[in-house]
Specification:
The complex is a heterodimer of chains A (107) and B (1163). Chain A has 107 residues and is mostly beta strands. Chain A has 1 helix and 7 strands; from the N terminus they run ββββαβββ. The C terminus of chain A is likely disordered. In chain B, α7 links the parallel β6 and β7. In chain B, α1 packs parallel to α2 and α30 crosses α38. Classes of the chains: A mainly beta (107), B alpha/beta (1163).
């Protein structure tokens, strides 16, 4: 399993769920229902300010676990499982992890 | 569709909840909710505020609590197995609320009331089960929510699928039918973690399997998502671990999703959980519907369920009356007329009776007769204990109180208005405060409990919130910053709210340095300082802990504990979880029994006078009292010499002379520099002047430039001006200036005809913006209708507006003026006994060491510590030899010596007199360090002198030091029965080897400061004389002779630091220093504060440069321009170019870290 922090472009459905993404120049389609949860940030180390009224996104960030297939793939390809994180305030998506081969690791 | 949150912690869950009830209720209402629950941790601390907030927001309140549950399998007394939420059912005539109160009291019944106790606040499952059913109807009145924090929820981690089910079944077995629900929560944490959707699914399945209803909540801790970091900081403060530590363990909330989510967001969560469980739309509907169904069961009717605003007083039989309370009240009042108004006839009598009828009518109309009788009963009870007691506050306005001897001020003589205290328009129980001797306060509480029964009395609590210093410390700890560094920063913060930290950084000169550090962020990552400021602001005013209110006592009938939960107070008496803001809404009768040290000091003085003087004749002579009607002295002094202070007439000239001299150190209310300045200018001549003085010295008059015109009119420098002749009778006593609330009431009444009751309502309404607008409209309209010209209306309105919320209630002033007068009277006539009382009870604002200077000024000898003559208290003693023979002196007490325990003190006094050190050791069994300290303080000097021998005190101390470090650990030999000690004098003392130089004055003073915080032998500044001379310092006693506007240098030890409210809003700092010849009061305006910087609040010894300014015939103060720390000689402005001298030997404060006791200020 590899850990990254590369930026990705994600397109979401109207309901806010990732539908497709572009990573390292390649287009992918989400092929299964994504899983979503939040993970804690160590904001006291990473942030310089935490003023009152600063809004959400200080204590946690959003993680999406998606299974994707390359957009131009053949149907026989195995889906790739990616963990994406979205920074709540800036709205930027980053790739957090790629899961091993065929089976996603449980958290 | 709306959603009702049923699990919500408000800020009143100390160190857990973030948001105030008002915010939460408003947010819920804005989202369309029709109800909101408040389920604070461990108690109903926020419940009443929640009720108020819900009513204001137009939604139904739901009440509950979040409690810990003891582990049935473990050690019942301390082991907790999870937490549950308990909700009270509503609309059942309070059966649910009652059960909730009793349950919460159960949870605290075993705790100690002291911080860090081993037993937590928790209930057993059996207790919980028994409270869920109403004892009379056996119907369910409480609902228990099993959620993620319950033992079931906590067992869901990992793969032990059986354990949660077993625990769930145990709950089902224990709880009555219909009292249990499963609480489904997802805070969207990582799958398989606590508060994850997967856990929520498991709970849902468990519920379904066992046919238990499931409801949805969000376990809310903060109102908006923005509150999540604050919750982290609170967790750190509660566990005393830094955030990095907590994150490592992991003990922090897993996500920041615990806010008061909208109905849409909750529906979304519900959908997610249902879908993850593999259920369908019908199940989602059921989950949401069940949540609302439970909410509906729990809606509270504030009036029928909680007795909202319905006053409750003790039963008549308990107060000791057997007839109608009102009839009893009338009888008692009439019975008091003879004593209070002896021989009254004619117009005076008519006026008094008419006033009495007026008051009794209102009291009867409101149904408060029992209330007055209760208070009178308490007052009588206290006086029967022989304890001084006097009502303070607006209660002094009442003739009924005066007749029943609850208050000691004649309201008719001083024009006090009853409506300021109580009126037909004011349906809330009035507040009566009783001042008692501070030393007797706990005895008084216990007696009240005995008298009324513990089911009718509780103490009151108070919430302590974060202020700047505490907030910085906890924020710093959360960030893992170094303790010392944070402590340094905290010391600089003085009197601003934590929320305004960033603003203060811009403004306050003493924070300049810190502000600079925040701005520059160096490579070490000092960005922490910026975060520190942010976190500090977040903590502002959040409740930290509950404590016993220093004076509140709640009295009710036998249902009191059904209406308030209680917990131990630490005093051995139970304390209500409600604070003063909750009293009125809950209709609770609260009595403030205030321990006033001045009352104890005066009682002590009166006792000393009797002890020292054999009888009335000697007391009259010593005090210079009038011969009285028969020549033997005044009536208020009894044959044995006891003075009845409450009977002393209020017109003694010597007392007013003392007050006018401004030598009022120790006098109640009038000893501060600001007050002395005012007194000096005002020159009081009679009792009413004292009332006016006390009323003027308040934020309102000071801020709005009332004092200057008042003084000018009073002294005839400017003619008195009245806005209209109709108002002359009202404002005459204060020369045209409006000072009292009573004057405001009368002004309203005269100019609009509204009546005094309405007028008091208007007065109170003026403190809010909307209220002010309404009152203004009414006033202008009615005054115009009555024919007052527009410019008069404008002028009067301007006055009313600014004074209504700041002016002073004359009744308060009158009640305060009594002990002010009495203390000054005692000081004028019996200064030795009075000073001894001040020393013993320490009532004033200044550190005790200043009393030494005052004694010196009054030429009262201070008698040093003596092992045979000093007692546990300060005492007056007649001097038997030496230049002061025949005078009364004050003997220092053994109390307050560092390291001397109360037990040791008792033993010393019990064994006096001692004829030798050996005798002392044997019979008092003092520890060696205690003996050595006593020697350092000279307690053995007279023994030593009697013993003879060439050694001095230093030799003795060294001798004792050597003994201390020798091997013997036993404190003394047993005295054998029958063996007499031979009268050889102290052989040991006689034979001490001499050799050391005698201790210098500085050495002695240092020992005194270190061990007693009082420099007795000489003033601690004396050793600085040579330094001060070189600097060109002027002493305090010389200042008065200088011309106004002279620039001088003064120096001394800090004795007072104040930042009173001032006109114009800019902060002004008053610092008083004592230099041994007197006190210098200096004022630091903004520019001077800038120059002085951190010295303002951080130093003990100050050198101040400033310009003199006259403040009255006998007053002078300094307008400061610059200050230095006297102990840092290298920084001082020596006038010549000679090199900085080495310090003249050690000075007394070297190495002594005691600051608070010495300067009265925690620098």
């Amino acid at each position: 399993m590899g850990m990254f922090s590369e930026s990705v472009d994600v397109v979401c459905s109207a309901a806010g769920q990732p539908e497709s993404l572009t990573w390292a120049g390649v287009d992918y389609t989400v092929c299964a229902e994504p899983l979503r949860w939040y993970e804690r940030r160590q904001w006291w180390v990473e942030d310089t300010r935490a003023p009152l009224g600063g809004g959400p996104g200080v204590v946690d960030h959003e993680i999406w676990r998606v299974q994707v297939l390359p957009a131009s793939a053949a149907t026989a390809d195995e889906p790739l499982t990616l963990d994406l994180t979205r920074h709540i305030r800036s709205g930027r998506w980053r790739l957090l992890r790629i899961h091993d081969g065929l089976r996603p690791r449980t958290a | 569709m709306s959603f009702t949150h049923l699990h919500v912690s408000t800020a009143f869950s100390a160190h857990y909840g973030v948001s105030w009830p008002e915010e939460l209720a408003a947010a819920a209402a804005a989202d369309g909710a029709t109800a909101l629950a408040c389920t604070d941790r461990d108690g109903l601390y926020g419940t009443i505020k929640h009720l108020k907030a819900c009513m204001a927001a137009g939604i139904d309140p739901i009440v509950g609590v979040d409690l810990a549950v003891f582990d049935d399998d473990g050690d019942h007394r301390t082991l907790v197995a999870g937490r549950v939420v308990v909700l009270a059912r509503g609309h059942n005539n309070g059966a649910g609320y009652r059960a909730l109160c009793r349950l919460v009291s159960d949870a605290h019944a075993r705790t100690s009331g002291k911080a860090g106790g081993a037993v937590p606040a928790a209930v057993t499952r059996a207790e919980l089960a028994s409270r869920t059913l109403d004892p009379h109807t056996l119907k369910p009145v409480l609902t228990v929510l099993l959620g993620p924090d319950s033992d079931v929820g906590r067992a869901m981690g990992g793969r032990r699928y059986l354990r949660p089910r077993t625990l769930f079944k145990q709950w089902l077995d224990a709880m009555p039918r219909g009292t249990l629900v499963a609480e489904i929560v997802s805070q969207l944490s990582a799958p398989g973690s606590p508060f994850s959707t997967s856990h929520a699914v498991r709970m849902l399945r468990l519920a379904e399997e066992h046919h238990v209803p499931a409801i949805l909540t969000n376990a809310v801790r903060y109102c908006a998502a923005d509150g999540a970091p604050t919750a982290d900081v609170l967790d750190s403060a509660r566990t005393l671990k830094s955030l990095p530590e907590l994150a490592g363990e992991p003990l922090l909330q897993p996500t920041g999703q615990g806010w008061l989510k909208t109905a849409d967001q909750m529906l979304g969560l519900g959908r997610e959980i249902i879908s993850a469980a593999g259920y369908g739309a019908a199940d989602l509907k059921q989950l949401m519907a069940q949540t609302e169904a439970l909410a509906d069961l729990c809606r509270i009717d504030p009036i029928t369920d909680m007795g909202w605003k319905h006053p409750v007083v003790p039963e008549a039989s308990v107060i000791g009356i057997s007839q109608d309370p009102h009839v009893e009240l009338v009888q008692r009042c009439r019975a008091g007329i003879g004593k209070r108004f002896p021989g009254i006839t004619g117009a005076g009598e008519t006026a008094m009776l008419s006033r009495l009828d007026h008051e009794l009518g209102i009291i009867s109309n409101l149904g408060f007769s029992s209330y007055f009788l209760t208070v009178a009963e308490v007052s009588r009870m206290i006086q029967d204990m022989g304890v001084r007691a006097a009502a303070r506050g607006s209660g002094a306005s009442s003739l009924v109180n005066y007749l029943m001897e609850v208050s000691h001020v004649n309201p008719l003589q001083h024009d006090l208005i009853f409506e300021r205290f109580l009126s037909n328009d004011r349906a809330t129980l009035p507040d009566i405060d009783i001042d008692v001797e501070s030393a007797e306060r706990h005895n008084v509480y216990h007696r009240i409990f005995e008298r009324f029964g513990s089911e009718r009395v509780t103490l009151m609590s108070m919430q302590n919130g974060y202020r700047a210093r505490g907030a910085v410390r906890d924020a710093g700890m959360a960030l893992g910053m170094d303790d010392g560094e944070v402590g340094e920063i905290a010391k600089q913060l003085w009197r601003f709210s934590a929320r305004k930290f960033r603003e203060a950084l811009q403004e306050k000169p003493e924070l300049r340095e810190f502000a600079g550090r925040v701005e520059q962020r160096d490579a070490e990552g000092n960005q922490q300082l910026d975060l520190l400021v942010d976190l500090t602001e977040r903590l502002d005013r959040l409740p930290r802990h509950i404590s016993m209110h220093p004076c509140g006592v709640i009295l009710g009938d036998a249902t009191l504990l059904d209406r308030t939960p209680v917990q131990p107070s630490g005093l051995g008496l139970p304390m209500s979880q409600f604070d003063k803001h909750d009293m009125d809404p809950m209709g609770m009768l609260k009595l403030d029994v205030l321990g006033v040290r001045m009352q104890s000091a005066m009682a002590f003085a009166v006792r000393e006078i009797i002890r020292i003087h054999p009888g009335k004749k000697e007391v009259v002579e010593a005090g210079g009292h009038q011969p009285g009607p028969d020549g033997s002295g005044p009536d208020y002094i009894a044959a044995d010499g006891r003075i009845d202070l409450n009977a002393v007439p209020l017109d003694d000239e010597a007392t007013y002379e003392l007050i006018r001299s401004t030598h009022t150190l120790g006098c109640f209310q009038i000893e501060s520099p600001g007050q002395r300045e005012l007194i000096g200018k005002m020159a009081p001549r009679e009792f009413n002047d004292l009332i006016i003085d006390i009323s003027l010295f308040r934020p309102g008059p000071m801020k709005s430039d009332m004092v200057r015109p008042f003084l000018e009119h009073r002294h005839g420098f400017a003619p008195e001006v009245y806005p209209h002749p109709d108002l002359k009778p009202v404002l005459q006593e204060t020369h045209g200036v409006t000072v009292f609330h009573e004057q405001i009431l009368k002004t309203f009444d005269i100019m609009t005809g509204c009546g005094l009751a309405k007028a008091d309502e208007f007065r109170r309404a003026l403190s809010s913006e909307t209220g002010e607008a309404q009152v203004e409209a009414f006033f202008r309209r009615e005054a115009k209708a009555k024919g007052y010209p527009p410019d008069v209306v404008d002028k009067v309105w301007g006055t009313l507006k600014s004074f209504a919320s700041f002016g002073f209630c004359k009744a308060h002033g009158a009640a305060f003026a009594v002990p002010t007068y009495q203390s000054a009277w005692l000081k004028a006539h019996h200064p030795e006994a009075f000073l001894a009382g001040l020393w013993e009870h320490d009532p004033g604002m200044y550190p005790k060491r200043l009393l030494v200077s005052e004694a010196r000024r009054l030429k009262i000898p201070i008698l040093p510590l003596d092992i045979n003559l000093s007692k546990a208290e300060y005492r007056v003693e007649r001097v038997l030899s030496g230049p002061d023979t025949g005078k009364l002196g004050i003997r220092l007490s053994l109390n307050g010596i560092y390291g001397l325990s109360a037990a040791e003190l008792k033993r010393i006094v019990a064994g006096q007199p001692y004829d030798s050190l050996a005798d002392l050791r044997e019979r008092s069994r003092l520890s060696k360090p205690s003996i050595r300290r006593l020697a350092q303080l000279g307690a053995f000097d007279s023994l030593h002198r009697n013993a003879g021998g060439p050694a001095n005190r230093a030799d003795l101390v060294q001798h004792l030091q050597k003994l201390q470090s020798s091997s013997s650990t036993r404190k003394g030999r047993e005295v054998l029965e029958g063996q007499l000690s031979l009268p050889l004098g102290d052989v040991e003392l006689r034979n001490i080897k001499p050799g050391l130089p005698a201790p210098t004055l500085v050495d002695n003073v240092r020992a005194e400061l270190d061990l007693m915080a009082v420099d007795v032998s000489t003033h601690l500044m004396d050793s600085h004389r040579p330094l001060l001379d070189r600097l060109g310092v002027t002493t305090a006693d010389k200042l008065l002779s200088l011309r106004n506007g002279t620039e001088v240098l003064v120096a001394g030890v800090r004795v007072a630091t104040q930042t009173p409210p001032m006109r114009g809003g800019r902060r002004v700092v008053f610092i008083s220093i004592d230099d041994g010849t007197g006190c210098v009061d200096s004022v630091f305006f903004h520019e001077a504060q800038e120059s002085a910087g951190p010295l303002l609040f951080g130093t003990r010894l100050l050198l101040i440069r400033g310009t003199t300014r006259r403040t009255g015939p006998r007053g002078i103060s300094l307008s400061a321009s610059m200050a230095w720390d006297l102990s840092r000689t290298e920084t001082l402005p020596f006038p010549d170019a000679l090199p900085t001298p080495a310090p003249d030997g050690p000075h007394p404060l070297d190495g002594i870290s005691r600051t608070l006791a010495i300067t009265g200020f925690n620098g």
